[in-house]
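Blinded run. Sample ID left blank on purpose so nobody reads anything into the name before looking at the predicted structure. Input follows.
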Amino acid sequence: MSKQRIGIALCAVSLLSIFWVAAAQGQVQGGEWSEPYRLSSEAGKASEGYLVADQYGYVHVFWTETLFEDQRSIIQYARFDGAAWSTPNEIYVTGARIENVPPVVDQHGTLHIAWVEGLNGPAYYTHAPATNALSAQNWAQPLRIDIPAGIVRLRVDSRGVFHILYINRVEEPGVYYVRSEDQGTTWSEPAWLDPDILPAHTPADLNFELDETDGLHAVWFYGALDQTSRPDRVRYAHSLDGGDTWSLPFLIDHYVEEGEHNLTAASPRMIVQGQTVHVIWAAGELPYRHHRFSRDAGQTWSAPGRLFGELHGQAFDGFAVDGAGQVHFLGQIRYPQGIYHAYWDQTQWTPPSLIYLIAQEDSEEGIGDRIHAHHTHPVVRAGNQLLLTFADPPADPNRRLFAMHRTLDDISPLETVPTPVPTATPVPVPSPTPGRPTPMPTLTATAPLFDTAAAQPLGHVPGSDLALRVALVPILLLLGGTVVIRWLYKLKH
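Blinded prediction complete.
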């Protein structure tokens, strides 16, 4: 065999190895983020993830699965310690449909969750120690809350008061607020935040956050209930006195009838860092990202501004704050289509960087084996580890939930609280008596102070040993090519 043929064969083997490596690394961009890790099981259709970080260095993730076998709904739970995931465990099973499972960890290390069963309630609440929540036996018996909620958001302030915002989609639809000062046993009468809601509209994408002084902040937008109406407003409201009084809703953005400023896919997202409130939503002829912020707990606001150039789309974004106070945005936009990451540098947003490629524009290849990521929900662990969950599209009958993480190398980790030694003291169980609303001080709306302007196989998604396999492939191909060439050479002679 001539030296020329040997050279051609070696070049072919080398090119083959290069193309194989490129295909294997085609999803995650750069080397900062881990490969997607599947959290959900193969037994049912998964929801998006609901996650929270605690003071002990854990990230807690909840999601629901609608089981293929009998259509029951289960709440699944898993914990991340910075390096590995616990085996997911079901902590609740019901025959009703479960809507959202927002978690919160209080200053005493208790993990709280609330959820809605059915389209219009009731809601339920339970809790467990954040350091010992893996077993369903460690969760308190769920407490029923009789409110007509379609979506519920729970927060716990520094005084231990429970605050709930919910969307009512039945009689007198709108955004409502209740609170409990006895750990969920009794609740206040509901306060209606938006009694001026337009006919044939319903609130959607409700956000609820607390600031550093226990101020309450809410953002939502309105979806249309029939074809004669259209989504028309993104609104914000706050209570700076612990829920006693609420501001009238402030208009973040609105539909322009004679223009091309649509809010059909607004889906606003809000985060509070200190006294600064950020809101991002989608608006325009295409769903371009827009942003407003307030540095004084929502009393005055910046003018709206458009972000990220021509990137657009709506797959439900997420926010997180790191240990240095930087606000991180993660969302699925296009083109190229993928998950993008940007952060607020105290004055403006950085250019978004692509961290996970889904598809190129006008590509014949399409999405292929990549995950069509929706509901990108991030959280920061220990101040400098960014963790992200995302799922297949909501309409996918086999929807799966995934997680990725990376370390923010330019930020020092926060010191975590030592994990308490487990004791035999049982978790307090709330009274099984339904928590019906009981009289409390009347809540009123006040004029605003601002202008009213077990880990499952991942299929084709590469596993955590990708780097080792990628490194071995060209070596094995070269060795195999050498053996073949020597064998052919011996046959020749």
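Unblinding after everyone has recorded impressions. The two ends are 9 Å apart (CA to CA).
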